[in-house]
Fold these 2 entries.
Entry 1:
Amino acid sequence: MLEISNLIKSYPGEKAKKGGSQGGRVFAINNVNLHVEQGEMFTLLGPSGCGKTTTLRSIAGLEHPDSGLISVKGRTLFQAGDRTKPVNVAANRRGLGMVFQSYAIWPHMSVFDNVAFPLQVKPRGHRPGKADIEQRVHRVLEVMELRQYADRQATKLSGGQQQRLALARALVIEPELLLLDEPLSNLDAKLRESLRYELKRLQRELGITSIYVTHDQIEALSLSSNIAVMRAGEVVQLGKPRDIYENPTSKFVAEFIGSSNFIPGHVLHRTGEDYEVDTSEGRLHLSSAAEMPPGTEVSVSIRPETVELTTQRPVDLRNVLEGTVGTRAFLGDAVDHIVNVGKLQIRVRSLPNLSLEAGTQVFIKLPVDKLALVPIG
Amino acid sequence: MSVATTTPEQAPSVAPDATPPVWRRFIPTPKALILGVVALIVAYLAIVPLWFLIQGTFLDQNTNAFTLGGFTRAYTDDNAIEMMRNSVWFAVGSALLSLVVGTALAFLNVRTDVPFKGLFFAGSIVPLVIPGILYSVAWIFLASPDIGLLNYVLQPIFGKDVFDIYTVWGMIWVEGLHLSPITFLFMVAAFRAQDPSLEESALMSGASRWTVIRRITVPLLRPAIAASVLIMTVRSLESFEVPALLGLQNGIYVFTSKIYFMLRSYPQDFNGAGALALGLFAIAALGMLVEHLMSRGAKAYQTVTGKGFRPRPIELGKWRPLAGAGIIGYFVFTVLLPLLLLVYTSLLPYYQKPSAAAFKSMSFDNYSTLLHMSKATTALKNSLFLGFAAATLVMIIMAIAAWIVVRSGIRGRKILDLLSFAPLVIPGLVLGLSLQFVYLRVPIAIYGTIWILLIAYCTRYLPYGMRYAVTSMQQISSELEESAAVSGATWWQIFRRVLLPLLMPGLMAGWIYIFVVSFRELSSSILLYSSGNELLSILIWEQFENGKFTVLAALGVVMIAVLMVLVSIAYKLGAKVGLQQD
């Protein structure tokens, strides 16, 4: 459905420009490759400046990449850098729908006019008639539950309604691909949550292929069928939400999505996917698909909520560490304990019924199947 | 022109999906065409006059050979030294007077509980509605040695005429007062931009109010004060009306009046006038450059600006009535007296001091004279037409130029920005002379027509149009444009249906401002008009030269009435016209 290969966009380095020296280019996106299937809700996730928005805007045609290929349903939208003839379809000829972060609702138009605009500006010959436009606008307003506001000034709508209006405007031309640029970031927390499910429901019902950009891991995990985690212009991990959460392949992903404890060590030996890692606090057993030969310096990562905390010495001492409670924090639906294990501090999240005084002797168990192996750094 | 040549680069991105045949790629898209034409117009307006000014100065007007004769005649003249001394004295004096008055007023207004705050802003529109030429005439009525009203009132007490407006001091007084509202608005902005917490923390450290003003407030204002002095000095140097009306009487010349004098005496010395004009241009450009560099430096040290919270105004206590009296005095002198005298004079058969007889002789004869004077109706029509045309053309061109500068990302757009601001440093009289050079040499038959005036106004007010258009363009989120592009709109559809409606308020404000300043333009028109193409401002000038003060006053009242209507419309539209007075 959507193919992106070897996409690169760079800017002249700001520092290099000021210093007067030349060279130094900053890569906004560096060799990005993506493949999105029909009907997917595909998310680009990463911190600000990671290149996710630049990638999305390149698909939209609002940015001009240096090289690479972008195609939708076999139609090449952008191609440059190899020996073939360069292609760059203008944004207004790509026929995609896009919801902007600010919604970009035109303040001088009514709700109806905002939605009718994409139909009204179609090239002569493809432009639907007046009655047709009216019918199609009303149909999409109906779906978005905005029918009764059609004649209202667009800026008079509430935040959630504006979001639905932006969506209606993007969908009215029935685009092959819907691009969503952090569409929930402007809303308050409660509204954000309810609209998240709304968005998921709509996307499912309409079956429209969507690319979703966000820096919010909860949004990404709950909405997407596939996630590409980006950092410094590159895709660092690609996969289903659960897979990415449970098996981060890098310290960055482990830290950016949820929170993680890292225990440094080196690989003692491995048999297939079964690893034994030597750490300052003892040996840990885990299974990982990563390729780490014995002797490699590694970090073992574990989510705070998968660590098991007890005050009694467990029978099975595999992957059990002994320590004392440092501090605790009550979070309402959970309690966090920071456990000092030798030089390490391990964060453990548990149900609120377990609450231990600082200084309590405890044992923590790191389940074999919950540990992930990531390169150091 | 790199701006023009880089625009076609954008063309492929506008091209339709299907690969166009080779020949189509050489036909510019409408977008490239429009952008290119606008860039060319701006470049033409900004560069050509200066180029011809330099040519006209260095090429002998008769033989066309290279010459420095103009410079020799202009700067080694016996009176040249005195002329330059007068210029500097006049310009710096006016700037300092306006600084003292304007800053004091701004401080009282922003930081104290002074009464009559409403009068401040009524006073601040004076330079807009009362053009320099009428302001000077009003002060002739007030403080000239033989007919001045103030001298008439004070003579019995002092036994002689106290004031003489026809001196450098008189010129400084009139110019300084006329500029003081602009300094006032400038300093009000500076006072307001200050972070109040800086002063409050000084108060908390135990400093007295006075120490805070001396040690914190004024030092923080230093960049604003320096900038305002520089700008006002440049403006006074460029001012033509005051030196021409008040200085020529006693042979006190400054750059502008000297240039005018050289062109009005026969044989006309174009090389000499050009040499003076280039000198004036160089000084003005240097002043603006220094100001620009200073304001850039100042920004680096700018503190967080205050938001929402304003410090409690200083209570003036027993000084409050005195400050109030000062405000009323200022308002009476700068606004009320000049206006009243113009109205008074316009009703008299000949100018006389106020007396029972004078009031008895009052009638509307001067106004009916105007009605029957064909020149007057032509002048009004011409002035209105020029204001309308210049404002419309400039705002259309600048709306597109602003898009190039703010949004296009085209390489070389900074050059376009620079070019459209260039006319800001060309004094009006210098521009007039430059255009004379252009259209005397270039075989386009617009010399002596109203069109040359239109070109002059468009050039002069390019920077203002640019400022309005760029400011409003920057306030429109680029996502509004991008969402239209993704929706399938072409560049022209986006511009017409999304940008233009959103830009409209800003463009309208700019339009009215340019209408106002074009309507009363004198300093470049005076070198470019020809009889039959009179303007209101020129007609006033002619009446002054012919000594017909009563008709002049009636013309002035008409002009001020029109300007007041325009300015109040501008205020209704919420335009901040005050700061950008020419």
Note: The first helix of chain A runs from residue 14 to 19.
Entry 2:
Amino acid sequence: MPEYRWPDRNERQVLGKRVSRLDGPDKVTGKAKYTSDVNLAGTLHAKFLRCPHAHARVTRIDTSAAESLSGVKAVRVIQGPGKEVQWSLDDIAVVAAVDEATAEDAVRRIVVEYEVLPHLVNEDDLGKAGDRTKPASEQVKGDPDQAFQDADAVVEGEYGIPVITHCCLEPHGQVIDWSGETLTAYQSTQNISGMANQFAQPLEIPAANVSIVQDHVGGGYGSKFGADSWGLETARLSRETGRPVRNFLERDAELFVAGVRPSGFARIKVGAKKDGSLTAWEAESWGTSGLSGGGISMQVLPYVINPPNVRKKHTGIATNTGPARAWRAPNHPQTCWLTFAALDDLAAKLEMDPLDFYLKNLDLTERPDLYRKQLIRAEELMGWREKWRPRGQETAGPVKQGLGLAFHTWGGRGHNSTARLVIDPDGSVSVSLGTQDIGTGTTTVIAMVAAETFGLTVNSIKVNTGRSPDYPRSGPSGGSTTVGGVCAATRRACQLALEELFEKVAPRLGAEPSELEAAGGRIRVKGKPFRSLTWKQAASRLGVTPLEVTGRNISASRRASDGKLIDSGVAGVQMAEVSVDTETGVVKMKKFVAIQDCGLIVNEKLADSQVYGSLIMGISSALTEERIMDERTGSLLNGEMEFYKLAGLGDIGELVVEMWKDAEQDARGVIGLGEPPVIAPVGAIGNAVANAIGLRVPRAPFIPRRVLAALEEKGGLYA
Amino acid sequence: MKAFEYAGPTTKEQAIQLLGAQWEEAEVLAGGTDLLSLMKTFGSTPKRVVDIQGIREFQGIDYISSSGLRLGALATLSELIDHPAAQSNYPSLVQAANGVRSQQIQSFGTIGGDLCQRPRCWYFRNGLGYFPKDASGQDLVRQGENQYHAILGNSGEAAFVSASSLGPPLIALGATLRVFSKDGSRELPVAEFFRTPRQESERETILKPGEIVGEIHVPAAGQVHNATYEVREKEALDWPLATASVALKLSEGKVAQARIVLGHVAPIPWNAVEAARGLKGKAIDESTAAEAGAAAVAGATPLSRNGYKVQLARVAVKRAILNAVMGGA
């Protein structure tokens, strides 16, 4: 068995290079086919009747007028009389028809009567939650009471961040073709290998008869792991009609029932000694994940920085709203903002530059040295020392400048993954994994690992993903686990294959297999490059039988023989510079600096892209993004992208991204990157706003209404 | 979207024939940037859609320095933005058209369509009409999420804001528009085109079913200092929170004539007559501009969550006045 490891840094030919994503040309020319582009002959279109009430019991349903409409092929009642519906836009019935318009017409002919029940859809005011609260037990560490008594400076504040949604540009959906014994699901998903069972069990069909297909996905962010209730209904319609059925959610349903991020609100008290040492933390937090209560996880509050004395208590609030799903770095963006806002206020009270305050307290983090180095580098890129002014310093004119910072952490250990590697006698190479490229560049990094190992070009590697069960199982793309999983599995498969290939060609080269190496498109004797075969000549030694091996990554394995290919745990520091117009409350991004480590960087260009995308997403949630519910009707008001406000190019300012590339981090192997850089933007931007105007805007997003309310000192969480 | 009949007339006479006596019978399609989204959500369900893009005489932009600017109702926002005479003489119009920060909407959206846009009120767009109420008769806007709603002109039931970007500068510039119907045509000031509906069957303009806006005429503005200032949450495509368009004639450094029109603060473009009158005879500086801003919102009646818009409107007026004079014309 080979010794599994990455090549030394100075020997790498492909890894770490700025390779453009292989699917880029297809995506920009429109050649790439997303699941929502799948158009099978004879496809029927599904439309759902959605509940208009936030909480109601179905008392009567009459589908006859829909059934009798020409072109309607099936009507299914999902929640019939007696069913209690707990959020608006939940599925009540579904129609399959020959085209979308007919399906829509049919849905509108279904008559449903409801007994309307009381609802709660807004959770920002804990005092109004009544019997909807689900308190968790208090957690205490050290002696917070004593620590607050002994503290030289104590600040208390209320901070909040609302529910936001995943807002995938390609909505959730599928095309299901259930013909005979087999079900083929063209699914928009981030979980290719985990999908078959989700259809098989509820539909009582052998998992082996379920195929999953996806070539490209238009966004998931943690919301596309499941088959979803609507996926199962689509499958049932296909079984009933014997035809393929297509279903993609409308935008309002996409925003409301297909994934939201929990909110987080908190009253926080923090205390420190004169020298800035943080000593005490107390927080009462609340939030919602929907009917389950939930909200942010107390486990990561306080965030990254762990004071010696802590008291915390969290209350989930059950709301009649669509259920939360994992949203890029679950819990971290919210608790990062809550923590860094409170600590920034404490630094202001201590009259300390927050940069000094954090440098002082880094021993309370798990990675003091790395954060210190990253803070210093971010300071240079931002020009923090030069630009920073204490809060409340008067400057001329209505537009004020401010700086803020926050930092974060994440795991990102590679998930379980199996790669099947085939070298054909003609020299062609394919790697197949039941994984998915959710826009992160997964297929490109797989090709790079294989190219590096074989000494071939990236374009000569064929990567197969997005099919189950055709390709070996790989994990869902969540938790930033994909890059480590697929790279380690691919590397092992390639090293194993190369070992076998060396054995086949060694006699021809008159050398021992252990003396061979693959480089520059050739198999050659180390130190004697003239004794070599081209890759193609070498592969022809396979005769008529392709060489096929599998390589696995077992996430939990710590066996030495698995080598040091992956690791877990990253840092990352971000700094924001904003301007705030104090007459209008308009916040503008000027500059944003992000320093990010992720172990061994497989492709620096794709790594940069992940950070850019994260920052834009984070800027949206800092400046404009918010789910807005009407308390009286219990319905979603901004269920389209006109008022569900995402940042555009004009809103993001200058983004400075720098990947952390020191040898120490590199030696740790590959670590996931998709999530960590999205964590700190709200904290950094919120603190920059406070620095600019000298007052805390306590709740994101920092829209003019809230900024002006803070300036008039009538802010608070409900502004 | 409800199935509909499509008609593509090439003359205004044909188009008028194709329109109905009721709104439900037919809708006019120009750029489609508003109508299509309304139809997709069943906010509009006409039996027939009359596409007027083929009517040549409603197209184009012409400028004659002595008489002013003629805007075909079908001219797009992009055509306006790119028009040299509009750029040099009517910056308030170009700034307002530029405020629609979407290349696609600028390319497709028409000037007539901008004036005829339906409210963006999220209760209206969710199918609850102009005067949304719950089952118990409670006013959903006043009891609910009214952060983007009207702070002026909201003493009646309607509290949505006019969505028109070009209405305020056109009114400030004293523009007129021509409406065509079976009975011929009539010309009226753009200021009289908008109205606040008092019942669901009314529209936000004086247009009746069977009428089409054909062209807009903006008087010569050689000596008119004019500007539009918008306050918005996003730089990318977004609806402004408040806008102000001003047109000022100066004589010996003092204001001889002024018009100040606010956008996105009332169910109609809001003509701040008192504020404009107050400017007369004064030189423009930071303080007179600020006074005009304060006067423009003196009668504001904000709702529970939109008090901040009073401040935004005040600042928009001040900055529009300063920009108009500093920017020159």
Note: Residues 482-509 of chain A form the longest helix (28 residues).
